Amino acid sequence: MKVWTLPVLACGLVAISLSAIFIEWSNAPASIIGMYRLLMATALILPLAWRERSQLAHISRKDAAWLGVSGICLGLHFLFWIQSLKETSVASSLIILALEPLFVMVGEWLFLRSRVKGADVLAMAIAIIGAGLVAFADAGHQGDSLAGDGLSLLGTMAVSGYVLVGGRVRQTLTPWLYNAIVFAIAGGVLALFNMTTSIPFAPYTLHNWLMFALLACVSTVLGHGLFNLLLNRVQPTTIAMTVVGEPIVATLLAACLLGQPITRSTGLGGAICLLGVAWHLWRSARKSDNHTDPSGQKAEPANRRDRPQSLDTADT
């Protein structure tokens, strides 16, 4: 890697890890936070997406329908996951959310008939044991911590659906165009939820509007934009292993900025869970790194954005 790659990776990791902190600093309803974050992010990347709008002419009706379902899944993810942060700790919520690549693996096995090796099953078992320890630790606490863990699990299932459903369409659209469309649909889903549940769109304090803007600019556009930039320049293994660090960095930030303690049980369970997830992602990324063509030569993809679906991570 070039010298400047590590600082860019670090900036991207901190940017996405700050997402949970910005959400905790806002007292607006979860659906409002998610809606404004998505709509603001859409507005920010729209100029880049607009230049690539000609690609839309080549999308079939079936792919357009899958694009819509992908956006719905992303909207549900933000609804459940953001609410989970209101009811449990940052550490517990993000550790459970880290299971997403393994959920995607199961989805690929069920619906796409992908092969699953014994090592991947073992990685999933390790991660589930770790997540179970985290949930067990939360069950002993007063309040709604266990309910928050359940919401995080629902959010993980939703974002796994977003990754699986959108996998086909992502191969035909550039990241900026794909994200702009999906973010707009997901924001519309949350707007519809707010209207049907009579949650007001305004007024909110200036502090809340600042958190919405930081979520859109820093955590969404900057964080994931930096990773998209690096996908053309570093191995998928590097990106995958960096993103696994999000729960760790976010937990440390929550301890420093929010005063959320890290219990021994949560720390142990989180370490076990992330070990399983990291092992699975490392194996998946190595497959991509070592991909060879029929002639036996190592294949260099024209666009490194075309990475395996199992390397996609939750859009926090």
Tell me roughly what share of residues is in helical segments: over 70%
> In terms of quaternary structure, what is this?
single chain
Percentage of β-strand residues: under 5%
Radius of gyration: 19 Å
Shape field: globular
What is the H/E string?
Answer: HHHHHHHHHHHH
Q: Characterize the main sheet.
A: none
Task: Describe this protein's structure.
Belongs to the EamA transporter family. The chain crosses the membrane at residues 29-51, 63-82, 94-112, 119-140, 146-165, 177-197, 209-231. With 316 residues, this protein is mostly helical. It is built from 12 helices and no strands. The chain has helices spanning 5-24, 30-50, 61-87, 90-97, 100-111, 118-139, 145-170, 175-196, 206-230, 236-244, 246-257, 264-289. Helix 1 (5-24) crosses helix 11 (246-257), helix 2 packs antiparallel against helix 8 and helix 4 runs antiparallel to helix 11. The longest helix is centred in the N-terminal third of the chain and has 27 residues, at 61-87. Residues 292-312 have low confidence and may be disordered.
Which features does this protein show?
316 residues; mainly alpha; 73% helix; globular
Set out the fold topology.
Elements: H1 5-24, H2 30-50, H3 61-87, H4 90-97, H5 100-111, H6 118-139, H7 145-170, H8 175-196, H9 206-230, H10 236-244, H11 246-257, H12 264-289
